[in-house]
Amino acid sequence: MNTVDIIVPCYNEEEGLSVFYQETQKILDGIPNYQFTYLFVNDGSRDETLRVMKTLASEHANVKYLSFSRNFGKEAAMYAGLTYSVGDLVIIMDADLQHPPAMIPDMLKGIEEGYDCCAARRSSREGEGKIRSAFSNLFYKLSNRMTDVRMAQGAVDFRIMTRQVVDSILKLSEVERFSKGIFAWVGFNTKWYPYENIERAIGTTKWSFWGLFKYAISGITSFSIAPLRLVTGMGCIISLFAFLYIVATLIKTMITGIDVPGYVTLLCAVLFLGGIIELSVGILGEYIAHIYMEAKDRPIFIVKETNLDRKNP
């Protein structure tokens, strides 16, 4: 019998965690020849999420949990779950039921067909704001153009992976994590399953627009040096135009003499170049920040308590 670990990152999921378990278990009860274990990861929740986890663990033998010492973020929670997982297969899914549990049987069939990973992607973004949806689509297009990894449009974290895929992901122990990019970077044979976007029925989203924007910037800079090359390209182009402008100005001065007017031109040039410099410094700062975070070599997460037998993976 194959063992399957279901990793569920949780942050302030007190209201919906029991419902998630009940709805997911209804699906799993109809799948033979697999033994499922839930691994809930409490990412420093400020509500009673940990208490609900403990209640579920006391009532169901297939429920395990990890609880962080503080909020480390969803990326850290997924990494912790993968680190502590021992199953032949590993599932990652959210606790808000926006990742449909009903897809699990079909995804398992994909694994049985020989795929290393079966992952879900949203075929529509119904229920999301138009601006948020537009920026999300733009991110995937930019990321695929600027990085060496190719992410499917609408890819989400919901997926089933073999042990070989999980072990490969764990070898990438960077602190600044962008799991969608990491999943694509390790490669392997992946089968995609489209699904319609499902609005969250219980609770509220933990992602703000600004948080998603920072996450997107981190994702691009984690897997591409294209922004640095863009800065270099802009510098070369501006330098070329500046040189041509200097030559033209010198020729004009020698022919017609000194021309006093030009305040507006000078002001526009200074403001334009100032903006380019600020943009360049910002892009460089993003990469320096990545180096800074990695150089400190701090742990990605700290576990405060767990009901797992093995405390240190």
Rg over C-alpha atoms, rounded to the nearest angstrom: 25 Å
Instruction: Quickly give the CATH architecture of the largest domain.
Output: Alpha-Beta Complex
How many discrete structural domains?
Answer: 2
Main beta sheet: strand number and arrangement? 8 strands, mixed
How many DSSP helices?
10
What general form does the structure show? elongated
- Look at the structure and give the mean pLDDT: 79
Amino-to-carboxy terminus distance:
23 Å
Strand percent estimate: 15-25%
Structural class estimated from helices and strands: alpha/beta
How would you characterize the overall build of this protein?
With 313 residues, the protein is of the alpha/beta class. It folds into two domains: 2-220 and 300-306, Spore Coat Polysaccharide Biosynthesis Protein SpsA, Chain A, CATH 3.90.550; 226-296. It contains ten helices and eight strands. Strands 7-5-6-4-1-2-3-8 form an eight-stranded mixed sheet, with helices on both faces. It is elongated. The chain starts with a strand and ends in a 7-residue tail after the last strand.
